[in-house]
Amino acid sequence: MTIGIDGMASGLDTGAIIDGLVAIQRNQQVLLKQKSSVASSIVTALQALNSRVASLATAGEKVAAPASWAVTKASSSSDAVTVSAAPNAKPGVVELRVDRLASGQVSLVDPAALTGPFTITVGGTDHEVAPSSPHIDDVVAAINDARGTTGVSATKLRTGTDGDGNAVYGLQLTGATGSGGAFSLTAGGQDVAATTLAQAGDAEVTLWPSAGGSHRLTSTTNTFDGLLDGVDLTVSTVSADPVRVTVATDPAAQVALADELVGNVSIVLSEIASRTRTTTSTDAAGNTVVSGGVFSGDSAIRFLTSDIQSAVTRPVDGRSPSSVGISLDRYGAISLDKAAFTKALTEDPEGATAMIQAIAGRVAEVAERASSSAEGTITRKITSQESVVKDLGSQVAKWDQRLDARRAQLVAQFSAMEVRLSQLQSTQSWLTNQIAGLTASSQQ
C-alpha cells in the first residue's frame, strides 16, 4: 500500500488534488452508469409491456373461440323452481308441474326398546349399531355416528312429563330423502315398534302438463340434474300451475366478451402511450427541459401500436367494425359502444359475433407475434437490452478498477514529490546554514 504524505513539505492539500483528478476521470464512469440506468428502465418497461401484450393474446384467443360465445342464461317463471345452468348450457325450454317434493322418513321410537345393540335396515341392507350404554344420549350418539352409512340421524324429542314432573323423551329418527331412504329397526331379532310421522318419498314433476304430457320424472332429492343440457332444476314448492324454464343466449355476457377484448387492447395502447409521452420540466438553472418517454422513437413499439390498431379497426368481409360499435378516436384510443353492439347482436347475432371473433383472432395473432417467449419482437428487444445492461455493468466495474489504480498512482506520485521536496528543503536548509557560517567567519 502506498503511504501518502499529504502536503507535509509543500503545504498543498494533495488529498483534495488527487480527489479532483480522479473525479475528472470518473465522469466517464458516471456517463456509463447513466446509460446503464436508462437501459435498465427500458428493460423494466418492456417487461411490463410484454406481460400486458401476452394477456392481450390470451384474451384475443378466448374471444375468437366460438365456444366462448355459447353463453346462455337460464330463467324460471316461478319461485317454485330455481335453475342452475353451466356456462356451456344449451338453449332450450321445458314446462313442468311440481307434483311432490322429496321427503325423508321420520319415526318416533321408545328409547326403552333400544337399550342394547340393534339394527337399522335401509334399502335391504342391515347396519349394526351398538350404543355404549342404554342412556338415550348414548343411543342418539351411536345412531348419529353411523349416519354416514345409514343416512339416518337421531335426536331427542320431548313427548311429555312423568308423575314427578320430569320431562319424558322419545327418540326421533330421520332418514335421507327419497323412497330409498326408508328404514326399519330390529332389536334382539324383533321388529321395533315405531310411530311413523312422515313417509319417505321421491320428488316428482310432470313434463309439459299443459300439452297433456304424462311423462313424470322422480328424484330422491328436490334437484333434477341435467333436465336440460347443462341445466339443473331444484323444486321447492308444490305447484298446480305449470312452470316454464327457459335457457337462452345471454346478450349481456356476449357484450362483456367484446368489452373484455377492447379493454385489453386499451390497456396495451395506454401503456405504450404513457411510456412514449414527452414531459417538460425545469432544470436547476431555470431552463426548460423536454424529455421523451422510454419508448419514444422506438420503431418496433410504433409498429406494434399500428398493428394493434389496424387489427381492431380494419374491415371484416367489407364491413367496418364501427357497425358493431368499435371505434378509434383521434388520440389512437379504441372504444366499444355497448349499446351499439347490443343493437347489432339483436339485429344480426351471427354477423355481430363473427365480426368480433375475426377481430379477436387478428389481435391475438399480432399480440402473440410480439410477446412470444421464443421469437416475439418485444422478447427479442428485452434480450437485447439486457445484454446492453450487462455490458455496461461490466464497463462500470472495470472503471472501478481503473480509478482505484489511478488513485494509487497519483498518491504514489504526490508522496514521492513530497519526499523529494522535503529532501530539497533539507538541502536548502543545510546550504543556508553553511553560507551563514562562512559569512560570519569572513566578517571576523
Automatic annotation (TrEMBL):
Homopentamer. InterPro entries: FliD, FliD_C, FliD_N. It comes from the Bacteria. Residues 215-425 form the Flagellar hook-associated protein 2 C-terminal domain. Its main location: secreted. It is found in: Secreted; Bacterial flagellum. It holds the Pfam family FliD_N. Residues 10-105 form the Flagellar hook-associated protein 2 N-terminal domain. Required for morphogenesis and for the elongation of the flagellar filament by facilitating polymerization of the flagellin monomers at the tip of growing filament. Forms a capping structure, which prevents flagellin subunits (transported through the central channel of the flagellum) from leaking out without polymerization at the distal end. Keywords: Bacterial flagellum, Coiled coil, Secreted. The keyword Coiled coil applies. Belongs to the FliD family. This is Flagellar hook-associated protein 2.
